[in-house]
Amino acid sequence: MNTPYDPWMDQPSTVARPSFDDLRRRRDELDRRTRRRNAVELIAGGAASVFLLVMCALSLARVDDPADLVRALGFAALPLGLLVSAAYVFFNGRRAEQDMARTGLDHLVRGLRREHRLLRLAWFWYVGPMIPGFVMIYVGTYLAQPEMWAFAAIAGGLTALFLIWVATINLSAARRVGDEIQRLEQLEGAGR
Fold first, then answer.
1. Alpha-carbon distance 81 to 88, whole Å?
2. What one-character DSSP code corresponds to residue 145?
């Protein structure tokens, strides 16, 4: 008995799987962008930490009451928060060595998933560790000089808006990476 002829099987495939070279190029581009972003943030964080530690030393030299001490310790808490953030990225953002044994598409998707997770949780590992330092600085400023309540309130509000903006742009980037992951997973599923 002959098998019936299915004309749809002779149709050209509408799903174009990326070539290995394309996957390698995209993975290298993602790695390059991630390394560049991390380097810029580490340099900026290092420069900010040096400035904040100098401010801490200057503030500690002029401690007159507990409020001054709270503000000075806030200047020390911010670099500590930046160090926590950098450590989180270092330990959670690295590419696992076993990734290379996977297919090119799976390798790219796994890298994007790591990036997606880091971006989605930036409020936790990037913004969160800095909040105690900012709170200590502004509360210490207010307690040391209650007449400067407007400065502490405005500076604290602007800082809160900035931190919300940082969390929001990271969530937006996570959504874009998530869309790319979904598109690549559809390609992978269609190619099977």
1. 11
2. -
8-state DSSP, 7: G
- Is residue 105 pLDDT above 80, yes or no? no
Using CA atoms, how far residue 150 sits from 48, 73, 115, 145, in Å, is 25, 22, 39, 11
58 phi-psi bin (left φ>0, alpha ψ -120 to 50, beta other) = alpha
Instruction: List pLDDT tens digits, range 6-18.
Output: 554 455 555 556 6
Question: Residue 155 and residue 138: Cα distance in Å, rounded?
Answer: 8
Residue 99's SS3 state is helix
Cα(85)–Cα(127) distance, rounded to whole angstroms? 8
Q: Using an 8 Å Cβ cutoff, are 138 and 159 in contact?
A: yes
